[in-house]
Amino acid sequence: MKNAAFLTALAGALTFAAAPPVSAETFDAVAAVDAQYDRTARVARQLWEWSEVGYQETRSSALLQTELAANGFTVTEGVAEIPTAFIAEYGSGGPVIAILGEFDALPGISQSDAPTRETVAGRHAGHACGHNLFGAGSLTAAIAIKEWLEATGTPGRIRFYGTPAEEGGSGKVYMTRAGLFDDADFAIHWHADDENSAAANTSLANRSAKFRFHGRSAHAAGAPEQGRSALDGVEAMNMMANMMREHTTMDARIHYVITEGGTAPNVIPDFAEVFYYVRHSDPGEVEAMWERLEAAAEGAAMGTGTRVEWEIIHGNNPLLVNQALAKMMDAKLRQVGGVEYTAQERAWAEQLATSLGDAAKPLDMAEQIQPYETSLGYGSTDVGDVSWATPTVGVRTATWVPGTSAHSWQSAAASGTTIGYKGAQVAAKAMTLAAIELFSDPDLRQKARAEFEAARGENYEYRSLLGDRDPPLDFRK
């Protein structure tokens, strides 16, 4: 009895001694992100070192999951039938705010963190789109937001979505199709870039497929009449697709790469493959062009005496811009400010800038915030499908030397340096402030939701551009 009385008194004393929740105004969100710089840099560098391609990001996904679990998040792995996709959540009640985190690298780009072209032996992929920074920066934001929820006692949930295979694999589309965003009230994302901007830029819808031609092998000199070249089928298709470009609208983009075309000139290849992308601002136009592309493939096969089949690999809807959220994010980014270089970082950036030629921009642009505007972007992203499931907002920060293009050795190099880590921290701060604003401002939530519903229109039904196929888990193997 004495022990029971003592424990009761102790519990009461501990309850009395517990620190009361702090106010939203008292919590310093920027400082909370600054305090995590070492984690941001460590995780970003590790993801950069691994450079795992789409759906093969086993270690990268596990690292992010481990960091989140260690910080109090409940992790659910292998969602949407994708082994490297996961969800990590903290909090209770609502609203539910999603933070997107990517971590896949690009195949075919190998680069050290030097400011000159320098491939790395044994490495056949690289983070030339900065997804190592994306994953690390989003991780930092999610933890900082969790700390704010915990410190202030605010009801709501922060949910980190580990989204694999953005580069051609449409990981988020499969997650959207599986309904994983249906109960999320808002989604926040960011991306590496050569400038800081929260402009309301939409994107192109796209679809891709691998067209596989089958022919008949023979000696190219001794028995050419017996062969049917699968490569001829690919080349005939490419010729017709290039003719098609002349008869498409201005927003159309068609590009391809021959992934297999034979191994010896004197052997008529019995197999060849070409990988196509088709893009347009209107998903309906993508589908219309796609019908023509499929017809070109079938015609090429008929004309060359070969057989063709194709596998749709990915398809993304365009980003649905939400002006209420975008303007709020722009204000938060301006509150945070841009990226300031140390003398050492400036010297590194100056050396890399010499490789950019006419594309180079003043280095001071890394410190500036670009004007807010609404425009069409000509890239594509699987964030587009998320934006049709829940109101979505994004931000871009100067993780690369101004003037650097994505998917280049220069972007891969900067993504493995403190320049990239600082840009990820800027993004984490802006996302954290934006999430706090959404948790705190019911009027903003209502306005953003009303805009979202109006933009989708009545009787909206989600439709994916990749159909009902399973995730292409081996498309990068």
From TrEMBL:
SUPFAM superfamilies for the chain: Bacterial exopeptidase dimerisation domain (SSF55031), Zn-dependent exopeptidases (SSF53187)
Domain Peptidase M20 dimerisation as annotated: residue spans: 208-298
Gene Ontology MF, one: dipeptidase activity
Entry annotated with the keyword Signal: yes
UniProt signal peptide: 1-24
Alphabetic keyword roster: Hydrolase, Signal
Keyword Hydrolase among UniProt keywords: yes
A Pfam family it matches: Peptidase_M20
A GO biological process held by the record: folic acid catabolic process
GO terms under cellular component: cytoplasm
InterPro entries per the UniProt record, alphabetical: Amidohydrolase, Aminobenzoyl-glu_utiliz_pB, Bact_exopeptidase_dim_dom, Peptidase_M20, Peptidase_M20/M20A_hydrolases, Peptidase_M20_dimer
NCBIfam families registered for this protein in UniProt: amidohydrolases (TIGR01891)
Protein name: Amidohydrolase
Protein's organism: Pelagerythrobacter marensis
